[in-house]
Amino acid sequence: MSTLLPPFPRLVFTILEPLACIAGYIAPVLDTAAFAAAQVPSITPTPLTSTSQVLALQLGNCYGLIALIAIGVLYSTNEPKVVRNYLVACAIADVGHLWVTYVVLGYANFVNVKGWNSLAWGNIGFTFFLFVTRIGYLAGVFGNDRVVASVKKRA
Hints:
70% of the residues lie in helices and 0% in strands. The chain has helices at 7-30, 32-37, 50-74, 80-111, 118-138.
């Protein structure tokens, strides 16, 4: 595990985020129609088209990929530059994720926290939390990275 992360970002990025992404992978597999319908909380569900089904399952697969990348990067490197670049890329993706959600939901639904369902909480609330935590880490709010002793490889 990337022991260079301070405790709070380590908890968020190496445990909470991968678990949330695994849930995002499992949800459409278990009930594709409900997962697709819940993407927009204020709309009455319609029959699932083949296109919607494929897109929902592909989105779930992307969440699985994100979990695997997070685990692969953060559990296998002690290189600060690799971790920082990974988190910068994730922060950029967070902005895109929030923007797409805002465009589709519209301002009124985006800010109507009381009207959010579990997927809106994930798409907006948790993504915003991750974004703020990433920016906080990158800005040094959680303290300095831990110094990890390098291990010399034997020839």
